[in-house]
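> call design_seq(struct)
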């Protein structure tokens, strides 16, 4: 990577670093300040970082400035690809300009151009058609939640324009090779190197520019309605979702103010901010029209300028007025929050419904408003989608909440109740008022720690997951079997958190002597926080099983406890269930929770399977005293990074085919337990009577074996007898006896 950094720096480019497998810069101030020196870049680089370049004035190349034409093709339709090529021809984009193929694939690319003056970015052309694409790093918007199934949303499916072409310039960045794309995990690659600067010289044709509309109100105030490229900017996905779709918006005026500050920080001009905030296609674009009671866009823009932009200007640490060349300003967060609190406090209090006496009514909406704003509008609570728990995000002095971020405790509900009672004279109940209100607010800020952990991993490209059981746990057995079990178990770990409840009804069983560290393997693989081995009440629906919340790998201890037919059947049903019916955290009701964990079993026995009908759920693996826990722990991130990569690429099964299952059956059969019933049946067929017996019912067969007289004839005995006969090569067949169909056991031919 260092050689790329050196080459880009020699060209005069302003390089900065991005998070691994991400487009997000490492430093907050990447868009400001002088170009970094080569020495500072080398000393600041860390393995896995992506590389970005700041376009415009910071990257002066010869007599011009570096910019880019971003060609984003999200469709695989050949007709759409042809449309893009025709659009590029009409835009007269230099055919020989240096080009990078995006990690997204499908023909997406960045065409690097040199422009005579730093120009701001703009959307040039876009397809009117929407297509479904895989973009798990982007939160779904309101339309996507309405039109796409929950399963597809969780799998990362989103709706986007089939293609779009944008000009990227001043205040924007582009990801450079050999960075890794955040969604496809593929590397960006040069298809045409940066050699001929003259071939890259280009000025966007006037035909591609959108002529600005001038809006004017009766007072003479005016502004230019200009195109605004939100998605090509440095605005966060959350800010864009608030503006466009209203995601997470409680108070529209407050949200409008926050979006205005964010747009200013991202370098948008006043006309761009006014254009976006008065575009009624956006969720927040109607706020100003509602306040003015007018359909006139210029009046709406003047309202935004007077009551939103001026407040945003006060929140900025810079005293400079808004202008096109000013660049992003630095926001003093403490000053910003104080300003928001003071300016908006009266606004939300006026929305509280009150009694005739003037007191605040005990309504759910009032509780939401108070809790959302009592310590400022900044998000303060979130929902952990893995643990199914609520988390405080920041201290809440009004509620006496400290030492955050942390999980909400029962005593916190008492604190909230006391605050509402003492401050607002509202007598509320925890179960019907406080908990539902906090849950509603928390679900607006859901997060999933394991998914975030997986997305932050960077795979080094070296294959390991097919052999990790053998390489790091000292597993012994046929290589083809170990390869199957090794890869599919890790893929199942990833699949279960990416698509909760996905079918995976198999348990990996680690066999080995006492003290070799079998349990330690599961603990290392999942991580201390996401591993558990406490006792589960399997099949009883006990509240103890809430221990599965927030666990990625759960160890079921010694399998010797599952000996009876009833316990074996219960275990099979437990492993097969994709959901668990458990008590809701903080509540008294029960609900179904899709499983996000996998199971590991441990045993020091060599023969412990005793039911051939359910053995497919077990993957036995013998591990030795050669376990290298330190080496295993060091390589854990790479194992999970590779598994996540392969899962994202797709085409990975979590189950075995019939042919693969035959390989596994050989291993399982070698772990079968031989009890008194099996031994008695085997001895019988070695005798004279048994050798001549060709066809029989199970009831008649039991009477022929005296050794079974002392054993209770119940369902368990029937299962064991049938199991023994199958092992010896018999199967059931329907035959006719006096014209009546009956089932008989016969020897397989």
């Amino acid at each position: 990577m260092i050689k790329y950094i050196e080459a880009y720096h020699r060209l005069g480019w302003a390089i900065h670093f991005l998070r691994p497998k991400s487009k997000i810069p490492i430093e907050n101030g990447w868009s400001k300040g002088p170009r970094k020196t080569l020495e500072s870049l080398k000393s600041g680089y860390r393995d896995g970082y992506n590389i970005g370049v700041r376009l415009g004035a910071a990257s002066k190349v010869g007599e011009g400035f570096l910019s880019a034409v971003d060609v984003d093709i999200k469709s695989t339709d050949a007709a759409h690809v042809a449309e893009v090529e025709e659009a590029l021809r009409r835009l007269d984009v230099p055919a020989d300009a240096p080009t990078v193929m995006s990690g997204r694939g499908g023909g997406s690319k960045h065409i690097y151009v040199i422009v005579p003056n730093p120009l701001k970015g703009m959307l040039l052309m876009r397809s009117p058609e929407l297509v479904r694409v895989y973009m798990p790093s982007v939160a779904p918007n309101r339309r996507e939640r309405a039109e796409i199934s929950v399963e597809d949303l969780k799998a990362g499916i989103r709706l986007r324009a089939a293609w779009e072409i944008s000009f990227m310039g001043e205040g924007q960045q582009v990801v450079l090779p050999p960075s890794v794309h955040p969604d496809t995990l593929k590397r960006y690659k040069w298809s045409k190197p940066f050699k001929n600067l003259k071939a890259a010289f280009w000025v966007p044709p006037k035909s591609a520019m959108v002529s600005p509309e001038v809006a004017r109100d009766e007072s003479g105030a005016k502004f230019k309605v200009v195109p605004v490229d939100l998605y090509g900017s440095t605005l966060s996905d959350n800010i864009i979702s608030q503006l466009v779709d209203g995601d997470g918006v409680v108070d529209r005026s407050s949200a409008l103010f926050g979006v205005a500050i964010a747009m200013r920080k991202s370098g948008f001009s006043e006309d761009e901010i006014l254009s976006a905030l008065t575009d009624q296609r956006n969720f927040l674009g109607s706020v100003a029209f509602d306040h003015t009671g007018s359909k006139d866009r210029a009046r709406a823009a003047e309202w935004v300028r007077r009551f939103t932009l001026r407040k945003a200007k006060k929140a900025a640490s810079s005293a400079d007025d808004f202008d096109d060349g000013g660049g992003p300003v630095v926001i003093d967060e403490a000053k910003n929050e104080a300003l928001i609190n003071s300016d908006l406090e009266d606004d939300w209090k006026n929305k509280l419904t009150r009694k005739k006496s003037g007191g605040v009514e005990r309504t759910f909406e009032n509780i939401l408003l108070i809790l959302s704003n009592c310590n400022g509008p900044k998000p303060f609570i979130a929902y952990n989608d893995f643990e199914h728990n609520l988390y405080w995000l920041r201290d809440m002095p009004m509620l006496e909440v400290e030492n955050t971020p942390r999980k909400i405790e029962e005593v916190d509900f008492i604190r909230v109740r006391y605050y509402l009672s003492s401050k607002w004279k509202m007598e509320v109940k925890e179960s019907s008022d406080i908990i539902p209100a906090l849950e509603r607010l928390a679900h607006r800020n859901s997060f999933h720690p394991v998914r975030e952990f997986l997305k932050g991993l960077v795979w080094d490209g070296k294959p390991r997951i097919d052999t990790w059981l053998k390489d790091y746990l000292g597993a012994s057995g046929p290589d083809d079997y170990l390869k199957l079990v090794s890869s599919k178990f890790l893929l199942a770990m990833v699949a279960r958190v990416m698509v909760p409840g996905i079918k995976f009804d198999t348990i990996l069983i680690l066999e080995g002597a006492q003290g070799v560290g079998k349990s330690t393997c599961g603990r290392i693989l999942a991580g201390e926080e996401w591993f558990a081995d406490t006792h589960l009440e399997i099949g009883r629906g006990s509240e103890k099983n809430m221990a599965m919340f927030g666990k990625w790998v759960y160890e079921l201890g010694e399998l010797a406890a599952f000996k009876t037919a009833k316990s074996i059947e219960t275990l099979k049903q437990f492993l097969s269930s994709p959901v668990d019916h458990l008590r809701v955290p903080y509540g008294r009701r029960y609900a179904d929770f899709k499983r996000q964990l996998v199971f590991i079993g441990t045993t020091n026995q060599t023969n412990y399977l005793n039911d051939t009908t359910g053995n497919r759920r077990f993957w036995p693996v013998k591990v030795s005293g050669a376990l290298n826990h330190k080496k295993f722990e060091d390589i854990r991130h790479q194992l999970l990074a590779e598994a996540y990569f392969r899962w994202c690429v797709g085409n990975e099964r979590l189950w075995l085919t019939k042919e693969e299952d035959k390989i596994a059956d050989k291993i399982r059969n070698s772990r079968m337990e031989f009890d008194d019933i099996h031994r008695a049946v085997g001895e019988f067929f070695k005798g004279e009577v048994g050798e001549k017996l060709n066809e029989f019912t199970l009831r008649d067969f039991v009477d022929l074996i005296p050794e079974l007289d002392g054993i209770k004839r119940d369902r368990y005995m029937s299962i064991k007898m049938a199991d023994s006969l199958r092992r010896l090569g018999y199967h059931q067949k329907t035959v006719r006896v006096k014209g009546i169909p009956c089932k008989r056991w016969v020897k397989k031919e």
